[in-house]
């Protein structure tokens, strides 16, 4: 797939998601046109995540351990919550500078035994 198209799709999907979040803050109906559009945005984002290689700055973000925002390179990042799936952990994160949000995927990399101490049973 064309790298320019992939980057355009990532930008579009991120902008649409941000816009939808601000709309949906005052939205009650779960099957409104806005939430159906949000479902569509999430479907495209899911496809992009699995089928299309992310833009170079996202790969750099992964390679450097997630220190600087993958969009604006700010170091004012915030981690929010963990979402566990089988074999994977998703960590929601955001940038305080450009206000973009993303999810970081972590995979099981190892195990270490926990030995009982006086504070554990
Ligand atoms: Zn940023």
What's the layout of helices and strands?
Blueprint (H helix, E strand, L loop, with lengths): L2 H22 L8 H19 L4 H8 L13 E9 L2 E8 L5 E7 L14
Antiparallel strand pairs: 1-2, 2-3
Helix pairs in contact: 1-2
Main-sheet strand order equals: 1-2-3
Shape: globular
Named once each, the bound ligands are: zinc ion
Report the total helices: 3
Poorly predicted segments: none
Protein structure class: alpha+beta
Domains, number:
2
Mean pLDDT over all positions: 79
Strand element count: 3
What's the helix-strand series? HHHEEE
Straight-line N-to-C gap? 54 Å
User: Could you estimate the helical fraction of the residues in percent?
Assistant: 40-55%
State which percent range the strand residues make up. Answer: 15-25%
Largest sheet: 3 strands, antiparallel
Multimeric status of the protein:
single chain
Please provide a brief summary of the model.
The chain has 121 residues and is α+β, with helices and mostly antiparallel strands. It is built from three helices and three strands.
What does this structure look like?
This protein is an alpha+beta fold. It has 2 domains: 53 residues; 45 residues. 40% of the residues lie in helices and 20% in strands. The chain contains 3 helices and 3 strands, in the order H-H-H-E-E-E. A 3-stranded antiparallel sheet has the order 1-2-3, with no helix packed on it. A hairpin with a 5-residue loop joins strand 2 and strand 3. Helix 1 packs antiparallel against helix 2. The longest helix has 22 residues. Zinc ion (ZN) binds next to loops.
């Amino acid at each position: 797939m064309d790298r320019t198209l992939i980057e355009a799709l990532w930008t579009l999907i991120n902008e649409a998601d941000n816009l939808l979040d601000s709309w949906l803050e005052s939205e009650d109906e779960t099957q409104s046109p806005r939430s159906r559009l949000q479902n569509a945005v999430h479907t495209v984002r899911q496809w992009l995540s699995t089928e299309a290689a992310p833009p170079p700055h996202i790969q750099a973000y992964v390679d450097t351990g997630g220190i600087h925002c993958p969009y604006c390179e700010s170091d004012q990042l915030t981690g929010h919550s963990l979402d566990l799936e089988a074999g994977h952990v998703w960590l929601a994160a955001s940038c305080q500078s450009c206000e973009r949000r993303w999810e970081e995927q972590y995979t099981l990399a190892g195990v270490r035994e926990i030995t009982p101490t006086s504070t554990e049973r």
